Amino acid sequence: MIRRMISEHSKLRPNRQLRQNVQRWLAVRASNLELLRHRPFTVLLAARTLNMLGFSFEPVALAFGILQLTGNDKTFLSLVLVAQTFPEVLLALFGGVIADRLPRVWVLRVGQSVNFVSWASMGVLMLLDVRSLWAYCSLAVLGGIASSVIYPALTGIIPEVTPPQFLQQGNSWLAMGMSIAKLFGLIAAGAVVAFLGGGVAMVIAGSVYFCGVVLTMLLPPLPAPAGTSESMLKQLAAGWGEFRSRQWLWVTILSFSVIVMMLEAAHGVLGPYLSETELGGPQAWAKVLAGEASGAIIGVLVSFLWRPSRPIFAGVMLLLFWAFPTTLLGLSAPLWSAVLAMFCAGFGNQIFSVQWATTLQTQVPPDRLSRVAAYDAFGSICLGPLGLIIAAPVSSLIGIHQTMIACGVVMFIATAATLCAPGVRAVRATARVASIDGKLLTTDEPA
Predict the structure, then answer these.
(1) In the structure, what pLDDT confidence band is assigned to residue 72 with cuts at 50, 70 and 90?
(2) How many domains does the chain have?
(3) Domain assignment of residue 2, yes or no
(4) What CATH number is attached to the domain comprising 44?
(5) Rounded to the nearest 10 degrees, what angle do helices 247-263 and 384-398 cross at?
(6) What is the domain extent for residue 282?
(7) How far apart are CA 436 and CA 157, in angstroms?
(8) pLDDT digits (tens, 9 = 90+) for 75-134
């Protein structure tokens, strides 16, 4: 009798677990759709998506526009990209302080407006066949200055317009909009560059930035930052204290700075050059980037439902995929394999991005969030200019294929080393309830 009862109980357990999983999935799905009825968030979602649509034109349009204009001059392209990246690095920390001191929505609007002027003007120069290095570098510097304030401001705005229990869903929706816009933008950019040229694509990018600025005008008034008599340096020091007190934060950023350096060299300069000289031109490179965007869309769909108990460890684990597309291109593997590898990299990177943003927004005090986000941005991109600078000379010295392989190996080692940090393994997800009006739908239990 006892044996029969145990047997029947063991049969019921999977059914009960299945029902609980289905109920939890339905509740999470309902909460995801409920968030879209929250007008401030949907306005931000639309504006951010448009901003990414313009941004997605940039890597293809700028790289191939410069290469076509200068006769495949890698050094010219490297210098323009360095001019864009340096102010992003140098001013990133002050961008965070500005976003914590001033109304973030206005900081965002100004940054996007400057981006519109920068990229549209660069497109006009390309259309006029202007080959002045200083002109392109000057406009790139202007765009870099704008970018230094956009990310910290946006990171601070997201929790202001998203109910706290919806942060992961909100970050997932924002990532979904960005991924779809990036995929469409990359495909469209490849076609526009191939048939109309990089100048037209840059003008289109600038115009879309402007549309994003108009959309941000629909955002409701947001809480103004609390007044402070502290100097900018004291506020920077306070942000640094928050940053260095969390091992998972600074260890991951340290690793990501190395990954970004390799990506800037491989994807910013060497990949487009390899595509232009060996793979058939901008459409081939657009396919590679579109593979990343496609994977990112799937990654976002997974992020809606998957809440790992150790979000940073799980996200960093998936960053290992970044090593493979660069290595395959260096090995002269078929183009489809590089596209597939980029699909996996986009998948892993998007899951990491959602988990990272949600953890940052839930574990850092709101009044210091933009400053910590600025340290995040600074640390992530601080070695980027070095990658752009060394790409051309190193590839000339040891060969472009060998350089691509070396970039892949370094990215793999840097990511694997991050997984060994105790803080990365220790940080846990916080439980959240999914309801805007306070009505309990479900409690998220990280898996």
Answers:
(1) low
(2) 1
(3) no
(4) 1.20.1250.20
(5) 40
(6) 31-219+231-426
(7) 18
(8) 788 888 888 878 877 777 777 777 777 777 888 888 888 888 888 898 899 888 888 888
